[in-house]
Amino acid sequence: MSAKKSVASSLKNPVFSSDDAESRALVTDEYLGDQSSSSVNNDLNSILKQITKDSTPVSSKALKLGFPEEKDDECEDMQLFLNRRKHFFILSSAGKPIYSMHGSEDIIVGYMGLIQTIVSYFHLEETAEAGIGTGDLRSFKNGDVCFTFENRYPIILMGVSNMQETDVESTQQLDFLYNYLVTTLSKPHINKVFRQRESFDFRKLLGHADVACLNNICADLANNSNLGLIIGGLPCLKVKRHIRVKLEQILLRYTSPSVLYGLLLGPEGKLITVMRPRRHTLHTADLQLLFSMIFNTNTFKTSSTDKPEFQVNEEFWVPVCLPRFNSNGFLYAFIQFWQLQRDDALEKLGTGSADQSVNPDTTKMGLILLSPYKDQFYQVRDISKRIIDRIMESSTLYKELYLSMLTNTPPEGICPLISDFIFKSKKHAQYFLIKRDDDGEHERMLRYIYSRLHSAVVTNTLVSPQRSTKCNGENILQRKIITFDSSNFIKYTKWKVSSSQLEESFNMNARISSSPQKNDIVTGFVISTPSFELYMVRKGSDIDKKALAQTSKKIIKWCLKNEGRLFVSGGAVF
Amino acid sequence: MARPSVQNKRSSQSLFTPIASKEADLKIVLLGESAVGKSSLVTRFASNAFDADKESTIGAAFIVKKYYVTDPETNEVKLINFQIWDTAGQERYQSLAPMYYRNASVAIIVFDLTDISSLTKAEFWIAELEAYNREEHKIQILLVGNKSDLSKNENDNQISETVERLKVPYFKTSAKEGTGVDELFKYIVDSIDDGIFVESRETLDLDQKSKKSSCC
């Protein structure tokens, strides 16, 4: 079936076919409705009322809901290579390969040369015409396949996507990959090696861990599996406000010239709090890069047990360059993880002994201290020890942190109709996530819907540039009114799950589940305002629009009311 | 096959940990080409485990390991607090190396028995450390050829020539199978100068505890 089609399409489209012959979509869905509303000057009630008034347009357009996982490979099969839905290439300006997500050396070498030729052709053309070299080729489209370029002399990046992403998103992805190289090596180092020899083989500089990181970042981008990268923010651990304050007081007790920034992390890189000097902020993008380095390799993990988990018996001292902070120099990251689930500590609290069935990483905390000095490891280590001791000594802190890691549900009645949601605070560039299920298929569906909804927000933002408003969380609460203007945006989309393939895979795996079942309706909803974004997913029976509107209102109110619990604001500033 | 992790630390600590009368801190640094097995050696020594899928070290890792030795004649228990720097082998981290070896007592220079080019890097490190060594602070240098499980002794002639020329103690290990690792660390423990041992904090703690309890 699809093999034949893909040969045809690859003939028409010689570089990359848009059809994935290797694997079929897990769920093919009927597109039920899509509705967006922007430029509304009204309060939340009336904007939500509006969607309930409008009739849902029904379109026959089919959508693939959820993709098969795509991972890096060094496959020699040209056809498979051409059928990938996502490619990333990194090469030197001289055309030497640095990294490719897919394909064997033999396959990629030719493409690298081609990419280099295309990029330098446009570079020269533009330079000749405009007299300055600023008009590089950014992107072009061939059918559904989008090609995006980033020329960051002495490095060139190209992305190929068949995932209906916007140019903006694709460019951001290339930017992230480029910055990852800067994070590991720093800009001067990259420039130096190519200045010495233009044909330098950059791969010599990258270790297994770097390549593993690049592979994992690319896989995240191809599978929408890093929500922080999709919606642009950092995940946060929900903790009582006074607990965060207490932690910040502890951090501030140990400020020292040896430490510039401090980060306290919960499981899955969820931010608990930060420490920073008054004159410097921490950039979200820098932290995403740092976390990518830590969470995407097994360098910081041990697999002496069955499953790799974060190493608690080692401390790490890692030079990192944070491009937004300073792309020319390194900071030195002291990284330590520790386990909260300890029998002795739990006994003291009377919460019973440790539950061995829980993934050990879900109850680990991490402390990262960033120092400007490479030779102050022992000083920083000493500070880290004291901070960790203080946290573990306090039974209040210990108990609250431990419990917030194990429970992550909003109070009953807040969102009975919705299985999953993300609330992102734009001011803090942080998000809070409610996930009801860890089922793989469900998660894949979620990622897809979140990324589609985010795409819609991005596209809309481009059409109507944001105006700044005075809309701030507290005001809204007091007035119980959210002022909408052209920068507000609501969209909701429904898919009908109607695939026979789904039923088959469903039976094969014998899952009782939360995976979409035949005739289920999946509803994705996003509301974007200047201060926050709310993404919701509902799955199961069709949902009444009025109920959808009411639910979203409830969630927004709850999140705004609990802002101090959900997000780190400011952190420990010294 | 990798050996399973043998010890449950919690129980072994609480049940069998002896009380040492003397203790000493010992700083060790591992240096050598990338992917020769430095981290694996440390993991084998510190947790008696092997991780086949381990990716390269980024920067460096600092590992603390308590190690008890009992004098067979006097039955005296001594505690050695190993402080081990496991460094990344890649070229780009080379400039950080002095920070790791500056205060070290022992440097374990590792190369891969199956990849003779990694011996050149080992020679480089030995030369650098010897140039650094002073009368007042000498780093003891040990050379380790790792991955003996994979080696077919193909490079033996060249290795023994080099070892003879360098005049450093030489060990063959397999971090994967665990062979030679005990011997390596036993050698390190045996060559510790008795003068660096001090009265153990553990005994001090115990004294304090007993004093407290006696006064109540």
Automatic annotation (TrEMBL), chain A:
<protein>
    <recommendedName>
        <fullName>Vacuolar fusion protein MON1</fullName>
    </recommendedName>
</protein>
<feature type="domain" description="FUZ/MON1/HPS1 first Longin">
    <location>
        <begin position="86"/>
        <end position="208"/>
    </location>
</feature>
<dbReference type="InterPro" id="IPR043972">
    <property type="entry name" value="FUZ/MON1/HPS1_longin_1"/>
</dbReference>
<dbReference type="Pfam" id="PF19038">
    <property type="entry name" value="Fuz_longin_3"/>
</dbReference>
<feature type="domain" description="FUZ/MON1/HPS1 third Longin">
    <location>
        <begin position="418"/>
        <end position="563"/>
    </location>
</feature>
<keyword id="KW-0967">Endosome</keyword>
<keyword id="KW-0813">Transport</keyword>
<feature type="compositionally biased region" description="Polar residues">
    <location>
        <begin position="7"/>
        <end position="16"/>
    </location>
</feature>
<feature type="region of interest" description="Disordered">
    <location>
        <begin position="1"/>
        <end position="22"/>
    </location>
</feature>
<feature type="domain" description="FUZ/MON1/HPS1 second Longin">
    <location>
        <begin position="258"/>
        <end position="388"/>
    </location>
</feature>
<keyword id="KW-0653">Protein transport</keyword>
<comment type="function">
    <text>Required for multiple vacuole delivery pathways including the cytoplasm to vacuole transport (Cvt), autophagy, pexophagy and endocytosis.</text>
</comment>
<keyword id="KW-0072">Autophagy</keyword>
<dbReference type="GO" id="GO:0032585">
    <property type="term" value="C:multivesicular body membrane"/>
</dbReference>
<keyword id="KW-0472">Membrane</keyword>
<dbReference type="GO" id="GO:0000329">
    <property type="term" value="C:fungal-type vacuole membrane"/>
</dbReference>
<dbReference type="GO" id="GO:0006914">
    <property type="term" value="P:autophagy"/>
</dbReference>
<dbReference type="InterPro" id="IPR004353">
    <property type="entry name" value="Mon1"/>
</dbReference>
<dbReference type="GO" id="GO:0006623">
    <property type="term" value="P:protein targeting to vacuole"/>
</dbReference>
<dbReference type="Pfam" id="PF19037">
    <property type="entry name" value="Fuz_longin_2"/>
</dbReference>
<dbReference type="InterPro" id="IPR043970">
    <property type="entry name" value="FUZ/MON1/HPS1_longin_3"/>
</dbReference>
<dbReference type="GO" id="GO:0035658">
    <property type="term" value="C:Mon1-Ccz1 complex"/>
</dbReference>
UniProtKB/TrEMBL annotation, chain B:
<keyword id="KW-0547">Nucleotide-binding</keyword>
<protein>
    <submittedName>
        <fullName>Rab family GTP-binding protein</fullName>
    </submittedName>
</protein>
<dbReference type="GO" id="GO:0003924">
    <property type="term" value="F:GTPase activity"/>
</dbReference>
<dbReference type="InterPro" id="IPR027417">
    <property type="entry name" value="P-loop_NTPase"/>
</dbReference>
<dbReference type="GO" id="GO:0005525">
    <property type="term" value="F:GTP binding"/>
</dbReference>
<dbReference type="InterPro" id="IPR005225">
    <property type="entry name" value="Small_GTP-bd"/>
</dbReference>
<dbReference type="InterPro" id="IPR001806">
    <property type="entry name" value="Small_GTPase"/>
</dbReference>
<dbReference type="Pfam" id="PF00071">
    <property type="entry name" value="Ras"/>
</dbReference>
